[in-house]
């Protein structure tokens, strides 16, 4: 089964659903990514700081899936920001992944106290021109960071990957993104399991109405909101469950009732404090 794709502003397309590998043990990564590829996933969201790019690379190599059928993202970590460090970091990531290019390379956090994200973005522009990344984007950028980037650089990021789940939807960031054709990638789509989202009576009752799980309802809400998502799980059964989102549809009322859960409830780090 193929998942829906979203066309990015640079003309490339990204599968709307993938697998995230944050907090996946490096020793387990190859097995988990292999499970996902067998189930049908073709989009993997990785990052240098997750420490498991080699496992992602081994699973890709062993899969035999043609490279152009895969969409692989990785990210430039804060301590690698700056021109020379960014060029070295992408080379290291590509080596660990066993690839000659990634499909998407992101600045992981703005880390505003470093004041290097504009310089780093120019390095990503060069990395894209060199063919090491097909598309380039940012992560955890708030409106002031995006505004500055757009004012001082040439290429508009194709995505902004931000914390986004029913308690924390960042409407001002997504609206700014929409007005500049910056697609929204929702990290922590299940709230990272840090609040009882999947046990909420609203979610449980919508799930019962569709004979789906709570996680499937929340992920389906993201899909219908137009977000790109890549839930993480260590469990093959849950990886399969999270991929099985395309045989049902939430009603407008169900969709709105989940949107109404917003309460500015960040569960991860504040981008302004990223260092
Ligand atoms: N750019 C950034 O700064 C940033 C930050 C965080 C994450 N991310 C990316 O976003 C991806 C997803 O976010 P996340 O991993 O933080 O959080 P998440 O996907 O919202 O939640 C993962 C948690 O949900 C559980 N889970 C997964 N599927 C489930 C299901 N069907 N039923 C019940 N529980 C389920 C997992 O447990 P089990 O593993 O035990 O199944 C895990 O504890 C990451 O892997 C990473 O690629 C990016």
Assess the beta-strand content as a share of residues: 15-25%
How would you state the average pLDDT, rounded? Answer: 98
Shape field: globular
Heterogens: NADP nicotinamide-adenine-dinucleotide phosphate
> Could you state the CATH homologous superfamily?
NADP-dependent oxidoreductase domain
Return the CATH architecture.
Answer: Alpha-Beta Barrel
| Low-confidence runs of at least 5 consecutive residues | none
Number of strands: 10
- For the record, give the distance between the C-alpha atoms at the N and C termini, rounded to a whole number: 40 Å
Name of the level-1 CATH class: Alpha Beta
Strand order, biggest sheet?
3-4-5-6-7-8-9-10
The CATH topology is TIM Barrel
Can you offer a commentary on this structure?
The structure is a single chain. The protein has about 280 residues and is an alpha/beta fold. The protein has one domain: NADP-dependent oxidoreductase domain (TIM Barrel). The protein is about 40% helix and about 15% strand. It contains ten helices and ten strands. Strands 3-4-5-6-7-8-9-10 form an eight-stranded parallel β-sheet. Strands 1-2 form a two-stranded antiparallel ribbon. Helix 4 (about 115-130) links the parallel strand 6 (about 100-105) and strand 7 (about 135-140). Helix 3 packs across helix 4. The radius of gyration is 18 Å and the shape is globular. The protein starts with a strand and ends in a 16-residue tail after the last helix. The mean pLDDT is about 100. It binds NADP nicotinamide-adenine-dinucleotide phosphate (NAP).
